[in-house]
């Protein structure tokens, strides 16, 4: 047993690194020793660095009468009681730390000192604090000067006066925010801001040091800002990404702290007036009001413009019925087309078939333009990974971003933004390459019209290696033909009584469904042979026939018929799904007998398989019936949404889709409508708001695109039976 440690006096100073290693040692016992490699992994240091520190650590422990044992091939052990281990930690708490910084750590801390300092400081202050020479300090300032130049901040070095920064308040704030980013990863910032960082995650010394790096922020301010931002999300109907959320919290919290220190921002009046005309400015005013009431400070109009600027540059979903944003979106769509074309040329590939790429890039680049034009910077933790692993794509994206510079009217696009855009191209290229190992499948639902198309859309989003060759009715499955055409397996929304590999899944694809499909593909991959060539050759046509012309004409006719006969209706209150069905039956006819027939058919379809689409919060009533000669679409909105007994989700309304029997082209058209509902958020938004005019306009655009694609794919048509 070691002697009593009740009257311990510390003998020798330690570095912060040595204290962190000792702290880790106190968490392990003789039966559970810790290895050098485990310590190095915990502290993100090399094993050689840890070994260099061990002699000083052993001396300190020995001088303070603690027993330390090295067990070769086993690990390191502090052979002390739990009580004495606590005393070691107490001793570490009062230990004077000899600070030893790496070059990177020193420069970051020096940068923090410069940004936080209100008055010039002599060079001696920095050389003594960091234990460096005048030459080293000069080199550090040269390096930091280049970093600060990106924010239009100058380091002033005046003989006899000292070292200080010269910049506008706006540039100061932007630089301070990025210093916080450079000190810590985004996950760590979020964790600390929300108070979730535990001593179990990192040594106490390390956590203390990192908390000090956030001295620019204040816990009370951060908490209030988060609450106000959550309210803004609901009011604006937007959703922040993690990086956007962090940026808003950090920037607005910094603003409050700077205002409290009487450091106020000034904005160009022309820029300010433009910002105050945006819808986000009203939310910025509410945030400012909340900050003012909580912290008893005055928030000037320039600060409201500042908050508005960050709301504009961070949002990912957009306001309803915002004509200015829609106009801007159309402009960005053209920019995206031009950027994709340049990337295609650079990489020597074609991405024209990837509609998802165009839509995702449009949504992404809208706030990018705002960020660039307002000089708002963000951090991309995947930057180096993208540059190293996808070098060609990154370089091609960088060239395409020359077009983005013109749109945003800036001199350059930061690499962080280029990498975010490159990620979209990386996914598109991966999707393209994955087609080399595709599975050919058929999608089945009871009618081949409604839920099958939604299932197909979700399959495309979740699995890039599935090629959907057929969309079928459960009543018309020819397994011999499927075998001849090389179909690997069937994905169905209902149970099937057939001798063919199939998976029965939900139209919205739950996690268990995805696992089931993955397992089927793994099993089939072992015996799979490429069968797509025969199918493609079989469907290849050399010229447009009379039959093709009739086919296209019929599709055009059905699209026009559908768009010109859309019906919307609003119900006050219902208590069950069955209460909606009678109205669905008579939506397109005044004759009771025909309406009753449609209602009965819809009810039978509902009994076969659930038609509730949980992520859309709607019922999808659909069937084939003799009651109509052309495609019909209607919507029944509910003034008071409800939770049916048979379903777990909220029902806000019901879509009604009818198609004539024995008309495959009608089923194909209705299938396109179903797909548009699952893929286009605008359509669902207009349904829920019961805005018929807006819905018809947007659906016309979707079906117009479908018609164009049908023409383009005439020589490789998708089969819908």
Account of the protein in words:
By secondary structure, this protein is an alpha/beta fold. Helices cover 57% and strands 11% of the residues. The protein has 30 helices and 16 strands. The chain has a 5-stranded parallel sheet. Helix 11 packs across helix 12. It starts with 13 loop residues before the first strand and ends with a strand. Residues 1-11, 196-213, 317-324, 529-537 and 716-721 have low confidence and may be disordered.
How many helical elements? 30
For the record, give the distance between the C-alpha atoms at the N and C termini, rounded to a whole number.
84 Å
Mean pLDDT: 78
Helix proportion: 55-70%
Main β-sheet: number of strands, strand sense, barrel status?
A: 5 strands, parallel
Proportion of strand residues: 5-15%
Helix/strand structural class: alpha/beta
Task: Point out poorly predicted stretches.
Answer: 1-11, 196-213, 317-324, 529-537, 716-721
Number of strand segments: 16
Largest beta sheet: what is the strand line-up?
A: 10-9-7-8-16
Rg is 33 Å
Structural shape: globular
What oligomerization state is this entry in?
single chain
């Amino acid at each position: 047993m070691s002697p009593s440690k009740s009257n311990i006096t510390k003998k020798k100073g330690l570095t912060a690194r040595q204290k962190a290693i000792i702290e880790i040692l106190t968490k392990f016992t003789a039966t559970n020793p810790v290895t050098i490699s485990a310590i190095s992994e915990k502290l993100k240091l090399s094993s050689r660095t840890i070994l260099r520190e061990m002699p000083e650590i052993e001396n300190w422990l020995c001088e303070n009468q603690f027993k330390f044992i090295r067990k070769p091939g086993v690990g390191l052990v502090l052979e002390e009681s739990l009580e004495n281990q606590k005393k070691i930690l107490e001793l570490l708490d009062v230990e004077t730390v000899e600070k030893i910084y790496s070059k990177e750590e020193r420069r970051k801390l020096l940068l923090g000192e410069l940004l936080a300092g209100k008055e010039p400081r002599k060079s001696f202050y920095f050389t003594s604090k960091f234990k460096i020479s005048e030459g080293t300090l000069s080199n550090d300032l040269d390096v930091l000067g280049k970093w600060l130049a990106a924010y239009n901040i100058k380091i002033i070095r005046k003989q006899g006066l000292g070292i200080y920064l010269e910049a506008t308040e706006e540039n100061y704030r932007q630089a301070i925010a990025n210093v916080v980013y450079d000190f810590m990863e985004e996950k760590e910032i979020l964790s600390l801001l929300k108070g979730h960082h535990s001593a179990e995650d990192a040594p106490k010394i390390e956590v203390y040091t990192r908390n000090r790096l956030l001295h620019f922020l204040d816990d009370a301010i951060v908490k209030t800002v988060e609450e106000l931002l959550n309210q803004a999300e609901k009011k604006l109907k937007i959703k922040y990404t993690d990086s956007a959320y962090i940026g808003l919290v950090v920037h607005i919290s910094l603003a409050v702290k700077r205002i409290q220190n009487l450091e106020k921002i000034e904005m160009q009046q022309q820029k300010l007036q433009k910002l105050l005309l945006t819808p986000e400015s009203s939310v910025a005013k509410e945030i400012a009001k909340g900050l003012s009431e909580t912290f008893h400070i005055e928030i000037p109009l320039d600060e409201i413009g500042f908050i508005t600027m960050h709301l504009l540059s961070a949002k990912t979903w957009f306001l309803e019925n915002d004509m200015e944003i829609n106009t801007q979106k159309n402009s960005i769509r053209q920019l995206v087309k031009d950027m994709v074309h340049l990337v295609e040329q650079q990489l020597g590939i074609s991405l024209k078939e990837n509609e998802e790429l165009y839509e995702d890039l449009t949504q992404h680049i809208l706030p990018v333009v705002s960020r660039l034009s307002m000089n708002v910077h963000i951090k991309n933790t995947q930057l180096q990974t993208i540059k190293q692993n996808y070098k060609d794509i990154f370089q091609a994206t960088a060239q395409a971003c020359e077009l983005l510079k013109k749109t945003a009217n800036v001199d350059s696009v930061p690499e962080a933004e280029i990498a975010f855009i490159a990620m979209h191209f990386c996914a598109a290229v991966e999707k393209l390459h994955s087609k080399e190992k595709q599975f050919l499948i058929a999608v089945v639902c009871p009618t081949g019209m409604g839920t099958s198309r939604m299932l197909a859309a979700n399959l495309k989003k979740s699995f890039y290696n599935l090629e959907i060759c057929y969309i079928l009715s459960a009543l018309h499955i020819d397994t011999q033909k499927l075998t001849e055409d090389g179909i690997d397996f069937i994905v169905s929304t209902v149970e099937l009584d057939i001798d063919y590999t199939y998976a029965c899944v939900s139209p919205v694809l739950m996690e268990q469904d995805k696992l089931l499909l993955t397992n089927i593909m793994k099993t089939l991959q072992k015996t799979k042979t490429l069968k797509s060539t025969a199918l493609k050759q079989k469907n290849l046509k050399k010229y447009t026939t009379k039959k093709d012309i009739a086919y296209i004409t019929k599709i055009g006719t059905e699209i026009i018929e559908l768009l010109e006969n859309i019906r919307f209706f609003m119900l006050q209150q219902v208590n069950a799904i069955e209460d909606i069905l009678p109205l669905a039956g008579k939506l397109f006819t005044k004759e009771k007998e025909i309406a009753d027939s449609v209602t009965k058919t819809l009810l039978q379809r509902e009994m076969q398989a659930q038609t509730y689409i949980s992520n859309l919060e709607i019922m999808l009533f659909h069937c084939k019936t003799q009651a109509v000669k052309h495609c019909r679409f209607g919507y029944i909105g509910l003034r008071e949404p409800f939770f049916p007994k048979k379903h777990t989700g909220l029902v806000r309304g019901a879509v009604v889709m009818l198609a004539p029997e024995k008309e495959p082209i009608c089923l194909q058209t209705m299938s396109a409508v179903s797909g548009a509902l699952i893929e286009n958020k605008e359509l669902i938004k207009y349904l829920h708001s019961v805005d018929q005019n807006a819905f018809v306009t947007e659906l016309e655009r979707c079906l117009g695109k479908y018609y164009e694609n049908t023409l383009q794919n005439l020589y490789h048509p998708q089969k819908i039976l």
